[in-house]
Amino acid sequence: MRFISESSEERIPCYRVLDDDGQPFPDSSFVKVSEGVAIKMYNDMVTLQTMDTIFYEAQRQGRISFYLTTSGEEAINIASAAAIKNDDFVVPQYREPGVLLWRGFSMQEFANQCFGNKADYGKGRQMPIHYGSNKHNYFTVSSTIATQLPHAVGAAYALKMDRKDACAVTYFGDGGTSEGDFHAALNFSAVTEAPVIFICRNNGWAISTPISDQFRSDGAVVKGRAYGVRSIRVDGNDALAIYSAVHAAREMAIGEGRPILIEALTYRVGHHTTSDDSTKYRPVDEIEWWRTTQDPVTRFRKWIESNGWWNGDIESELRSSVRKQILHALQEAEKAEKPPISDLFTDVYDVSPSNLREQEHSLRETIKKHPQDYPSNVPI
Ligand SMILES: Cc1ncc(C[n+]2csc(CCOP(=O)(O)OP(=O)(O)O)c2C)c(N)n1
């Protein structure tokens, strides 16, 4: 009689390509990245980093109501985006705007969404950072944890039924793997053999809840295996490792018709959102260590520099032009008019039901009575 152990016998290894100094480990195998792709990856990582700094400050100045940074997770965002194709559906959590950036969503489009102005595709009806784009096959962000995961499996299954040469790629945090939706999604994906790539950003924290040591050593990869989903653990701060793993995952997902799970080990360097102060529950030294010595952007820069593709002059030029572009986009988005009040009541029903018409009428009456309490840049 032999019971199967409840935990894996050995610690799951972590796939790495670049060491902390941006040099490939001897004999490491990885997918080749051309100079052009590597430069775009670096450009986009710097753009994402700069956008986070400036948008975060804009929230602190009271210009936007909310923001959430991706700091520390730039490699997961950009390298995974680089390894997939534009036809692949992206079903995000909320800490992956870099994938949308990679696909060509402009700074102006990001800024319009955060200000909820009339150029925002969501017509100002979503909270800031709930980006979405039909054009870029990027499903609209929903902050309700893990609800995107079953959707991604359904989308992947539809792609398979239609015999499309594409997969669905979905992202989530380590906290999300404790939700029922995560388990339903993994089970459903394995049973239907859906071409979906699950990318878990194991960033050590779910708001103020630390990920336990047990989970750090035995995390989402083990849950993947439990559902019969092929899985790998990767260094999330190593852009080359992420690129290679996602590239291989895509080939298996589409070629063999199966789900794949990637657990990327990383660290959430920023506060959870602008509503959080993470120094209240974690040591500042820990944050600093990750922000400096483990920065994925610097690590990748060292690699492109050692290939002779980058230098200090291009670096300063890039940083200053990206900064200007982002500041300009913010100013434009701030100046733009908001969507009209009537937009609040459209796009759900073909013909508006009586209760919605009553609510609209009541809102208009209230605004008439208390005009001083309503923003002057929202057309009535
Ligand atoms: C269903 C649900 N429960 C709780 C919350 C509140 N909440 C927002 S973010 C978050 C933590 C998520 O952590 P994780 O999935 O690890 O992602 P991270 O923020 O670390 O990137 C929680 C509990 C929510 N948004 N949705």
TrEMBL record:
Q: Which UniProt keywords apply?
A: Metal-binding, Mitochondrion, Oxidoreductase, Potassium, Transit peptide
Instruction: Kindly name one Pfam family recorded for this protein.
Output: E1_dh
What Gene Ontology molecular function terms does this protein carry?
branched-chain 2-oxo acid dehydrogenase activity; metal ion binding
Cofactors demanded by this protein: thiamine diphosphate
Recorded GO cellular component terms are: branched-chain alpha-ketoacid dehydrogenase complex; mitochondrial matrix
UniProt similarity note: Belongs to the BCKDHA family.
What this protein is called in its record is 3-methyl-2-oxobutanoate dehydrogenase (2-methylpropanoyl-transferring)
